[in-house]
Specification:
The strands form five sheets. Strands 1, 10, 11, 12, 13, 14, 15 and 16 form an eight-stranded mixed sheet that branches. Helix 18 links the parallel strand 22 and strand 23. The protein is rod-shaped, with a radius of gyration of 36 Å. The chain is of the alpha/beta class. The longest helix has 19 residues. It contains 18 helices and 24 strands.
Length: about 600
């Protein structure tokens, strides 16, 4: 009596490093694009794991109880590398060489799977995405690969996966939903008998089981990564020395298979089965039967070898003193529904269920595993990227972050300028001021609070730098308490040495920074920084604020020392704040 063939579904296993790759992909590659992105994953043959008990008296007793592990599709940091199909076409990278070396050492252990990432920009887009359309799109690619013959040459095309995602990089929350698209049959395919363990199916006992592992290892060594997941298996019980022969899917029904299969032989459709269920095959078989339905419509009854022992390796490579591991492979008899009897074609299912076994997405919260400072850095970086993507694509954020800004003046202008620079990604800010925080400052200047004005007031430069570090710990903010020598202000003989030292300190600060902001509250205090900025060919930005007027201007920058010479050309002598003012600086 036939029963509906039931399959063990995939469960995704996503390593944390993958989400780091998604964050980098969003920030530096995809940006605002929602185009489908190729990724990849892998699965291995299903195995049961022994439950070891501290009270067990022997190895056999310890292995008496086993745990069936769900069929896992692994998605890791390597999922951002080339997909399996691309790897088969290119073999010149170091990572590809490493994978080839691993394939030679452990052939066919991990089956590569191509996938498609559908990343959205907002949580609303994620929720409103047409999940059915994603399944139809991937399902259509499966059917096209079958009808074109590509899936016959590269069976890996039969089991792609899809991931719908939204990365909230401000909170490091990753919303995702994984699908394993499978072309369904209505009426469904059936099984005509109970699943038979491979050890009971073969006539030669453990020797024939070991021979199967050896035959598969040889087949995988001679196959590409995209081809080793499915095969044709011929079992000849009369051939004691070599009972198993494996062929590619291209050989199904060919003369070479017919020649290998003699009297008393069994020809089976085999695949690497990720299921560890005792009777149910894994999810990849669904699309493999669809391939059989359309590629070989004459075949309706067949045996399927659910091979789960690739991870054990060849029997020849197993250590003689190692404990023998029981084979997990099974053989099932399947009756395929002919394509002509299907009620509807192109029906696709496969969205993964969440932890509560409901068809719903999942969320990964990595904020608790990250340093809060890193979260702040990530959130600010995302804001900057959004501003660049939407408003100013030509801005070089790396150059902005590397810019060293010197703010001469830490009052109202200095406080707001520092906050604006921080918002645009500048990470090196130095304040120069000789004042202290007064009781009137906190109401007008956002870097100070009431406590800063107590006990005579903290030095403004140091208090401003400390406040910046509290706002954003990754900023390199420093404060220098310094009185700037000014024209029109007399210098007493006792102040000559300290004034010269102040000039030298200010010159060193100007030389060590890229941009100088003049933000003081008098004209004459801007004169010396202006001269030093011109001398060292620095960008100088002068901002002055009056009761009902203001000025903001960038001083000229001379590209080379020779530009200081008067060549008679007007474009080599760009003016500064004082060049455009007819009044000389005096004591105001």
């Amino acid at each position: 009596m036939s029963e509906i063939l039931r399959f063990e579904p995939f469960a995704s296993t996503i390593e944390p490093e993958f989400w780091s790759g998604l964050a980098q992909h969003k920030l530096h590659s995809a940006q605002l694009s929602t185009a489908r992105t190729p990724i990849c994953g892998e699965f291995i043959g299903g195995r049961r794991h022994a439950l070891r008990s501290a009270t067990a008296n022997s190895a056999s007793e310890a292995a008496a109880q086993t745990l069936a592990v769900p069929a896992r599709l692994r998605i890791s940091k390597d999922s951002w590398s080339k997909t399996g199909a691309e790897q088969d076409g290119e073999a010149d990278s170091s990572s590809q060489q490493q994978q080839q070396q691993q394939q030679k050492q452990q052939p066919g252990v991990a089956v590569p799977v191509d996938g498609f990432l559908y990343n959205t920009n907002t949580i609303e887009e994620f929720k409103k995405s047409d999940k059915s359309e994603i399944l139809r799109e991937v399902g259509a690619s499966i059917l096209e690969a079958i009808r074109s013959g590509q899936a016959t040459r590269a069976p890996g095309l039969l089991w792609p996966f899809a991931m719908l995602s939204f990365a909230d990089l401000k909170k490091y929350h990753f919303y995702h939903w994984v699908a394993f698209p499978a072309v369904t049959a209505d009426p469904p395919d059936t099984t005509t008998g109970a699943a038979v363990p491979i050890a009971d199916f073969v006539a030669g006992g453990s020797a024939d089981v070991d021979a199967l592992r050896t035959a598969y290892a040889e087949f995988a060594r001679n196959s590409s990564a995209q081809s080793c997941g499915a095969f044709v298996a011929v079992y000849q019980q009369q051939n004691i020395s070599s009972p198993w022969t494996l062929f590619s899917l291209e050989d199904w029904g060919s003369a070479v298979v017919e020649e290998a299969a003699g009297v008393g032989s069994s020809v089976m459709l085999g695949f690497i089965d990720p299921s560890s269920h005792s009777t149910r095959p894994g999810w990849p078989l669904r699309n493999l039967l669809t391939w059989m339905r359309y590629s070989h419509p004459e075949t309706t009854d067949l045996k399927v070898l659910c091979f789960r022992d690739a991870a054990l390796g060849s029997a020849d490579t197993q250590k003689s003193d190692a404990p023998r591991q029981q084979s997990e492979s099974i053989v099932i008899d399947v009756q395929i529904t002919p394509a002509t009897e299907l009620k509807a074609e192109n029906q696709v299912s496969g969205w993964e269920r969440n932890e509560k076994q409901k068809l719903a997405p999942r969320i990964v919260n990595l904020s608790s595993t990250m340093n809060p400072v890193q979260l702040a850095e990530s959130a600010l970086g995302l804001n900057l990227q959004l501003m660049r993507w939407r408003l100013a694509p030509s801005i070089d954020l790396g150059k902005m972050a590397a810019t060293r800004a010197l703010l001469v003046g830490a009052g109202t202008l200095g406080a707001y300028t520092a906050r604006a620079l921080l918002a645009w990604g500048v990470r090196k800010i130095t304040f120069v001021d000789n004042g202290r925080v007064s009781f009137s400052n906190p109401a007008r200047q956002p870097l100070y609070d009431f406590a800063d004005s107590l006990d005579g007031g903290k030095p403004k430069a140091a208090a401003a730098a400390e406040s910046m570090r509290r706002i954003f710990p990754n900023v390199d903010a420093q404060g220098v308490q310094l009185s700037i020598p000014m024209p029109g202000h007399s210098v007493s003989p006792a102040e000559v040495d300290s004034t010269r030292a102040a000039v030298q300190t200010l010159e060193a600060l100007v030389a060590d920074h890229d941009v100088i902001f003049l933000l003081t509250d008098s004209r004459e205090s801007r004169w010396l920084p202006t001269m030093l900025g011109a001398l060292h060919r620095k960008i100088v930005v002068c901002v002055a604020l009056g009761f009902d007027t203001f000025v903001a201007m960038r001083h000229g920058v001379y590209p080379s020392a020779g530009a200081f010479e008067d060549t008679g050309s007007s474009d080599t002598r760009l003016g500064c704040y004082f060049c455009n003012d007819v009044v000389a600086p005096t004591d105001s």
